[in-house]
Amino acid sequence: MVAPKAFLDFIDDHGKELIDRLKEAVAIPSVSGDPARREDVKRMAAWLLEQLGRFGVNAEAVPLGEQIVDGTPSDLDLPPILLGRIGADPKKPTVLIYGHYDVQPAQKSDGWTTEPFELHVDYSNDKMTGRGTTDDKGPVLGWVNVLEAHHALGIELPVNLRFCFEGMEESGCEGLDALVAEEAAKGDQGYFDNVDCICISDTCWLNTNTPGLTYGLRGVAYFHVTISGPGADLHSGFGGSVFEPMTDLIALMSKLVTSDARILIPGIYDGVKPASEEEIELYNKIDFSVADVEQAAGGKIAISDDKATVLMGRMRNPSLSLHGIVGASSGVETKTVIPARVTGKFSLRLVPPQTPEDVKIKVETYLRSEFAKLNTKNTLESIRMEGGSAWVEDYKHYNYEAAKNATEVSRLEHSLVGRLPTHFGGPFASPTSSLQEIWLKTPDFFREGGSIPVTLTFAEKLGKNIVLLPMGRGDDGAHSTNEKVNISNYLQGSKLLGAYLYEVAKLAPKT
């Protein structure tokens, strides 16, 4: 079963209308982290709910109650989670789609070259700029585009679909865990009934050339270590006569990690298996070099010249990074002060079988032991941690095979490579454009160095295979100024998402 040519042609022939839809979405400043924008986030939810309903999805906006601020309910309502379903054929597999409709803050004064909440479409350079274009309104609307095409053409979807779109992803996913657990507990009576696999499009390719599939995310354990001593900040004239909290803190933080990234905390690597030859080969195949890593970092500072070593350090292995010291002097002025109380901040990126809880015990034990060796009269006041677990998926599951097949256009009867009508202008009018080459590659399989908490939520509550299927490229600048998505990625990505559903229908075990 392959994506029908009529579906692929629909995306090509209605490119302008699909871009106009993204323009409407970008124009709604749904910044979840700004209370003043909360009504805009709700407006975005209502707009998206209407879009889903137009194309046959039975959906509702589920209220989540008041937002919790500093441990207590506020008078600020959380934006709703949109839950929807279309299709109930027991002979078809059921795919759950997740996305989010909220965005990061953005102002023109931040350095944007265009207004962040006005979609700027540059056909000549294959680029659309605006907040949310790649994270995550573009991918969410990719699914809406799939729905519209099938609805307009009268083509039955190859799978049953379930949707979960939230409005607090950029602000900690508040309310999501409880709702997913509640829906999962409902079984066949809930929105996640009979889900066979899950697809999330909230990541990007590693680079600008090769599509990718993400099958793992590192967890995080973020620590705040506070040391205090004097009753108030002191003049540096006291130096040499008292124990200084900053000196003790720097001594402690220097014992956490070496300059070549080796973590010094005893037992921290327990249970972490070395990479197999097969896994190392997977990293060697990734279209991302040591030079690419250094270019992304802005300096020739890679810890090794070996590609697999560097990529596994970024994606697969535990790491520890030092982030800063609160309470210390900052700014350009000369300030001769001995701070009375300082807090050091550092984090570990975790991989299975590490957990935040286990790491917390090991870090606390080690820091208290090392602090005792300092023979200081200062006080190790507190060690506080917040964190989330790692996630690694079975990339040999049919869910990944479906995503891989859909990405490899040569595997499809009808090429995913499309074109905009010639009156659009730009590179799409030329059949020899380099854009014709973009999807003619096997996607890279990789793990990400960061975290997407919702992935773990679905994995724990539903126990189904999850594929992270990107739409955008590695240079899209999610969360940054001038966030963009390429026009080709938006339209081709819409085709890709639809083709993925047909591949799932073909590969999923028959019931």
TrEMBL record:
Residue ranges annotated for the Peptidase M20 dimerisation domain, each copy included: 215-372
GO molecular function, one term: metal ion binding
Keywords: Hydrolase, Metal-binding, Protease
Listed PROSITE patterns: ARGE_DAPE_CPG2_2
A GO biological-process term: proteolysis
InterPro entries xrefs: ArgE/DapE_CS (IPR001261), Cyt/Met_Dipeptidase (IPR051458), Peptidase_M20 (IPR002933), Peptidase_M20_dimer (IPR011650)
Family membership: Belongs to the peptidase M20A family.
Protein name per UniProt: Peptidase M20 dimerisation domain-containing protein
Species name: Meripilus lineatus
